[in-house]
Amino acid sequence: MAEAALEIVDASAGYSGRIVLDAIKLSARKGELTAIVGPNGHGKSTLLKAISGLVPVTSGEIRLDGSRIDRLRPDQIVERGVIQVPQGDLLFPAMTVHENLLMGAYANSDGLAERIDFVFALLPKLKERRNQTAGTLSGGERRMCGIGRGLMAGGEVLMLDEPSLGLAPIVIEQIYEVIFNLRREGRTILLVEENAERIAEHADMIHLLDNGRIAWSGLGAELMARPEIVETYLGV
């Protein structure tokens, strides 16, 4: 079994004194795809923000390769190698695709040319659109640009917040093929996804988050074999 890249140990977090995550305990092993599923509004995005340092951890610990990162600033966490691709991408619309990608490397410019080449090889549509402003891209192209910008940071752990949100089915297939290719290449991926069926076959581990707590953990096949859990928590 691979060792953990990212460990969350009894971590609680929230906003303005309100606890959203309560004693979360999970890990993302190196080179694996770990998925977080659950109903909307139950803490999935907050979990990624807590790992990124955007939401304060009030108790417990978050560790990267055994070292605590929950006391670091967001920019320091990025420098340590934990990269988040946020829900909705948050691109700079007036900048070109190429400029948006370069923004992803602001904290680490070593090997910049090689990373650009890697992103363009993985996402050839971005190479075609490199001089086009991000605001004129299609929804799928924006999502790809967001993933590419995250990869430009050269991080060890890539966190993706609902990359399929709002996209047409054929575009979702393209986005997930990119994600699964990254998984096959040995990237460590922490993925938030509302649709468990979409990632059940590919995820190495799935955690079900409900009301800020881990309600269930296991393999994708195990989750899909529990229709009472899927129907109750995921509405499938």
UniProtKB/TrEMBL annotation:
Q: Which Gene3D superfamilies match?
A: P-loop containing nucleotide triphosphate hydrolases
Occurrences of domain ABC transporter (ranges): 6-236
Kindly indicate whether the keyword Oxidoreductase belongs to this entry. no
Q: Which UniProt keywords apply?
A: Amino-acid transport, ATP-binding, Nucleotide-binding, Transport
The GO terms describing molecular function are:
ATP binding; ATP hydrolysis activity; branched-chain amino acid transmembrane transporter activity
Q: Which InterPro entries match?
A: AAA+_ATPase (IPR003593), ABC_transporter-like_ATP-bd (IPR003439), BCAA_Transport_ATP-bd_LivF (IPR052156), P-loop_NTPase (IPR027417)
SMART domains, alphabetized: AAA
GO BP, sorted A to Z: L-amino acid transport
Keyword Lipid biosynthesis assigned to the entry: answer is: no
- SUPFAM superfamilies, per database record: P-loop containing nucleoside triphosphate hydrolases
Record Pfam families: ABC_tran
For this chain, the family text in UniProt reads: Belongs to the ABC transporter superfamily.
User: What name has this protein been given in UniProt?
Assistant: Branched-chain amino acid ABC transporter ATP-binding protein
Q: Which organism is it from?
A: Mesorhizobium atlanticum
Lineage start: Bacteria, Pseudomonadati, Pseudomonadota, Alphaproteobacteria, Hyphomicrobiales
